[in-house]
Amino acid sequence: MQHTQFPRSLGDKDLMAFFRGWEWREYTRGTEVVVDLSGCEFLAPWAVALIATYVLWLERVHKCDVRVKLRKGSRTAKYVETSGLYELFGGSSPSGASGDDEKRTAPLRLVETERDIPQCAQSITRLLQVGDQDLEGAIYYSFIELLRNVVQHSRSPVGGVAMAQFYPRTGLVEVVVADAGVGIRTTLTRGYPELRTDLGALKFSLLPHVSGTFGEGAYQSMKDNAGLGLFFVKEIATRGSGGFFLASGDSIVDLWGNLDGSPGKRYLSGTPGWHGTFAMMQLRKDRIADFEGLLERCRELAAEARKDPGRWFVDFVNELPEIGGEFAAVSIAAIEEDVAAASTVREELIIPSLKKSIPVVLDFHGIRFATQSFAHALLYKVVRDCPEARHLLTIARASRPSQEAIRAVAAYASTGHAE
Length: 419
Description:
With 419 residues, this protein is of the alpha/beta class.
């Protein structure tokens, strides 16, 4: 018998640390496995969805005999019942727990075919009772897109597991979808063979017009709506002052929107990770005032990306990413406004690294603003000549003026003008 004991707390604040250190173990056929939650005092929806998917994967794929161990009468035991874990596996809740007044839970659903998607999204949205038409529209739309990705691309042997929760006191809604499929990198490499890391694939998947079906050239193709699902979900969450976590393989991306409208972003890679794909979306009541207008803005951004893909080349993050494995890092403060040094770094480090599929991080910490000429020397040829920059180049801790200078260079370079 194998024993898998989960940590004491699996709340939203624990998500990144959990992914950093937790390993989802595989077992041989017929193994008896105890999924031990008896020492866990708090479970968030994302943890329940991942554990449910893991149990399904062990049972259906590895033919293991799995038992979930809980401490009777504990808060976690009650929440596991409320979440519908027993019903998902064909049983019934031991005590018939129905939750509490502080949260409304739309229990776990299993989606295996295209026909399951609308019914699942409608049921979950209705059960949450958020009392806000625009927020309900965002929830329903996001579930449709996330579940469609599972059914169409994941090749998950257990389908996709979905659930959601609404906290009336804070107005926060959490939407979770998980699968045990091949992961985002495997899905995308059919059309984009240059994607060789999970983090690069995650970053690339969030760009507009990136499709696991149509492949390279989607910006110039007639398939205007191809590859917009994850991009729209990310924009809906962050523009509504919410958050979006996306994990696959050994990497996770954490995106959020601040109350002042500015975006936030954090990366973590080189972790034990998740063998499929996991997405968690956080939405806030009263922060999405006009969902139809928000969708229209997303479509405008997608159209702008088709006309000017260079502006989407550049990936800005608030913190230095935690990247496992080999990567190249440059402190821009060490060559501040030295155009000759910038050109040398570009030719001897940035471009060679990108061509070898090595991630590059440019750290602008300490730079109040970068001039146009410096940004041009550093990045013009990178954007013009290295399509790998879309998924391998990260610019960290750049000020707003520096970001605008870099965006201007990227937009100009994408037109193919000579220097």
